[in-house]
């Protein structure tokens, strides 16, 4: 927790959970990425946290934007950033949304199959496309499924089809999985990308760009390498697989940009046991899976938690949310050690919540309002 967040919470008490984001941390993270990979363009993943204050700050620092929808494109353009700083990175797009993005001036689109290529050829003629390939995500706390990307051996066919339809076959993209703890995770993907570059050259098509995606971690409970370690490992892999002919590169940090910039202040609603001899307490908070903490699903993301009683004796407890849905349990398989003295009405601070919290919050499930957000 930063001093600025601590001071804000003390000076501004509130009823109900709220996310507080410190822009100074966001700025520091941006400079860390820009310094670690100085020849790589940063495309902030807007989906992580689209707060206007964050987008405006990043635009002013020179960031570009990875967008998953027309609304996100509009949010990025509202900062004053030009459309040349926007990538429509979702591989699943309605043709009318492609046309809308094209009207806004966007000329960079993600694809992973021929059908998507054909939509872009019709709705955004002459645009640049990059083909996303599948990546196993080993080493990530939140591995990605096969929903996005195609088998690497299919990518040349997709890109050649794009070139044939009048688009520009621009490059290859991949994602090594969210909250990736292995700095070497990009190596095998870059090796595959280099192979695709060579095969396309043999087909008479010169690719220009590798989109290395996101995956850069926030600071949760488990220790993670710093941004410089990722930068060094990625640059070494680029040199190894591409030699002196380095491609244009971009990264799409989201969680790594804003995750550790935010903290949620929540409140204990109830502390109880399920049986008289039960050693495990249930601690119910006024925030749960449906109001910003969706990434606790399968306990994939384990947030650091502080309380007002952290100096007291501790014991394991199950953490759950306030709704009438039985899946609204945050941590049960691996209970959290929290102070035995924790009581109804106590404040709980959930750290590293700047990413994927407000955007995962429901509009009004069970009548609870969306997660409030303050950017300082």
From TrEMBL:
<comment type="similarity">
    <text>Belongs to the Orn/Lys/Arg decarboxylase class-II family.</text>
</comment>
<comment type="pathway">
    <text>Amine and polyamine biosynthesis; putrescine biosynthesis via L-ornithine pathway; putrescine from L-ornithine: step 1/1.</text>
</comment>
<dbReference type="InterPro" id="IPR000183">
    <property type="entry name" value="Orn/DAP/Arg_de-COase"/>
</dbReference>
<dbReference type="InterPro" id="IPR022644">
    <property type="entry name" value="De-COase2_N"/>
</dbReference>
<dbReference type="Pfam" id="PF02784">
    <property type="entry name" value="Orn_Arg_deC_N"/>
</dbReference>
<dbReference type="InterPro" id="IPR009006">
    <property type="entry name" value="Ala_racemase/Decarboxylase_C"/>
</dbReference>
<feature type="domain" description="Orn/DAP/Arg decarboxylase 2 N-terminal">
    <location>
        <begin position="24"/>
        <end position="258"/>
    </location>
</feature>
<protein>
    <recommendedName>
        <fullName>ornithine decarboxylase</fullName>
        <ecNumber>4.1.1.17</ecNumber>
    </recommendedName>
</protein>
<dbReference type="InterPro" id="IPR029066">
    <property type="entry name" value="PLP-binding_barrel"/>
</dbReference>
<keyword id="KW-0456">Lyase</keyword>
<dbReference type="GO" id="GO:0004586">
    <property type="term" value="F:ornithine decarboxylase activity"/>
</dbReference>
<keyword id="KW-0663">Pyridoxal phosphate</keyword>
<dbReference type="InterPro" id="IPR022653">
    <property type="entry name" value="De-COase2_pyr-phos_BS"/>
</dbReference>
<dbReference type="InterPro" id="IPR002433">
    <property type="entry name" value="Orn_de-COase"/>
</dbReference>
